[in-house]
């Protein structure tokens, strides 16, 4: 993994996990629908989602991401995975060290799940 991606992964996880109460509040309230006390967190979640889609579109334009996958689908998949991993740490699920999990998520997103191309060459 190039150093810039590894650095991002290594810095992001500890930064998020250094404020567990705020992260837990965001993770539990950000999916609220309709009016209510959770609306500021819902707006933050919407902003994060929109920004992720924008970054994905930039990645597609630069040739980094597969254009056959809609930007909204890939972006929101990554956001959801990152949020679920963060929650796993907050509720003490068995997880690897945060830097390992962050690097694994970045690798998974950039390289995909497939270990090797199938012998027949089909996707």
Largest sheet: none
Order of helices and strands: HHHHH
Structural class by SSE content: mainly alpha
Low-confidence parts lasting 5 or more residues at pLDDT below 50? none
Total helices: the number is: 5
Q: C-alpha Rg, in Å? A: 16 Å
Average pLDDT reading: 81
Approximately how much beta-strand content do the residues carry? under 5%
Tertiary shape: globular
Helix content: 55-70%
Can I get a quick summary?
With 123 residues, the chain is mainly alpha-helical. The protein contains 5 helices and no strands.
Structural overview:
There is one protein chain. The chain is mostly helical and 123 residues long. The chain has one domain (3-111). It has 5 helices and no strands. The longest helix is centred in the middle third of the chain and has 23 residues, at 39-61. It is globular. The two termini are 23 Å apart.
Write the topology of this structure.
Elements (H helix, E strand, L loop, with lengths): L2 H15 L2 H10 L9 H23 L9 H20 L7 H14 L12
